[in-house]
Amino acid sequence: MTRCMKRSTNALMPSQLDIKGQVASEGFADGPLWLAKNHPVPNYRRQDTWQADALALTNAIAIAGAQTAELVGNAHDDAFDILEFQLARLEDASFVEAANELIEAGLGADMAWREVLNSEISSHETSDDAHFRAHAVDLRDVRDRVLVALTGAAAETIAKGVIYLADDILPSLFLSHDWRGGGLALRAGSVTSHVAMLARQQGIPALVGLGDFACSDTSSALLYGGREMLIISPSDQTRKQFDLARKDFGAAQRRVQDFSGRAAVTRDGTAVRVLVNITDPSEVDALPIDHVDGVGLMRTEFLFGHASGLPGEEIQYLAYKKVLNWAAGKPVTIRTVDAGGDKPIKGFSEDETNALLGMRGIRLALKNQNIFRLQIRALLRAAVHGPLKVMLPMVAVPQELEEAVRLFEAEASSLAQDGIACRMPEIGIMVEIPSVAILPHRFSQASFLSIGSNDLIQYVLAAARDNGQLACLARADDPAVLALIANVAKYGAEHGVDVSLCGDAGSDVAVIPKLLRVGITILSVAPARIGLVKASISETDLSDGNEPS
Ligand code: PEP
Ligand code: MG
Fold first, then answer.
1. Do 106 and 129 lie in a common domain?
2. Which ligand 1 atom is at minimum distance from the Cα of 338?
3. pLDDT in tens, 240-253
């Protein structure tokens, strides 16, 4: 396949070069190309004694730590998690100790640090666990920040409004620059990398997988999202087309934004409730409560994934209370910790050969009741502040729900005995294991059901959710998946039980009409998708008789 195409213009003008890539973050950018300075880190000058080398390393780690801490102060969501991971590694005494041993044995501070970090990086790169592998790039970032600090070299400063061309970019460099008006063009990279995720969150256009090609620093360039292309030295005609496409894209974005604050109603008048999914309480800070009908899924794993260890009752109580206060009387659904599987948590989840079919979700919580009881107490106390619904993940059989309810009742009476204010919340379950979707009436004790399409799809089709090669199989609109969703919606309608859908399928505009047609009228979606989802609902006509295929 030809990846690059040259188009000749007149002899004095450089000819246009079109390079095809993959869209990691949608959008358009027009600016001068900025070639990453791929120069190696400058040489470190060794000190006279090994002790002085060790001290230089300690100082460099402290500088890198201070730079990272400054970035943490302004970060949210995934950016916060990545930087916190890096900070924890910079504070990890075992790295310094290992490096100091090598320094004492004769290596320079730079070589010693490189060796220790490279071995850690390669253990991440070769891990079977995708979550662990994804941190390899964050560790490379940690390694290089310390190396740069050791040599006293200044970090790369990038001009504003440029299209940054590099093999890849480290998260800290991405986070320390204001990319507004510009974009990222990466020769390597991946759409699932941490930087791609950060670019999407900030709305910065990014293309990855552009491959190798020659170009110069002075070229003008277009990041042409709609065509998945980086265009260098564009012709006048290409620029005109680009301007039109960018205008259309902007108008579509604004239109979608306009929908965010409106009620969600299909063309034929069916009202749909749209709630929000959050992973961190800070996500609600920028979201007006009148844009949503409440919180349909608050994942609580974020509280558990910190380097400082598992959270206590008080930290959890404050996090849950914050969201209930923000919701101002609208329902807030908080899911109990869903550790294990694709969400390993140090000190909690187990090492398993087949983690997705192993100890995860409610199974792990019931096995580790000392940990689970703290969360239950925090939830019971938070319920005093608003209409809390508690949702149990990965329920497979009714006994798991019954046992969890017993634990809630036991902790409620223990809190009451101690005179601590608490309230029993509604308790419902995720429908993400086929056993529940096939026979939902067995779970009549659940006061609500919420379909976790991400897991349900992978278990129905035996296609792992994180394996890109299986994306054509793991589809929400597969007839078997839709039939199960329809079965749960029918059970809910017949028994007066709310059935929502909180997996990613709920924000896929190609799937939303099919979900509505099988009877789903409550969707819970990521904050950034609210406008898009409401726009898609408003364009759906349930009276047109189209059946989902
Ligand atoms: C799901 O499985 O659809 C879901 C919402 O849960 P998670 O993605 O956290 O597993
Ligand atoms: Mg799930």
1. yes
2. 9
3. 999 999 998 888 88
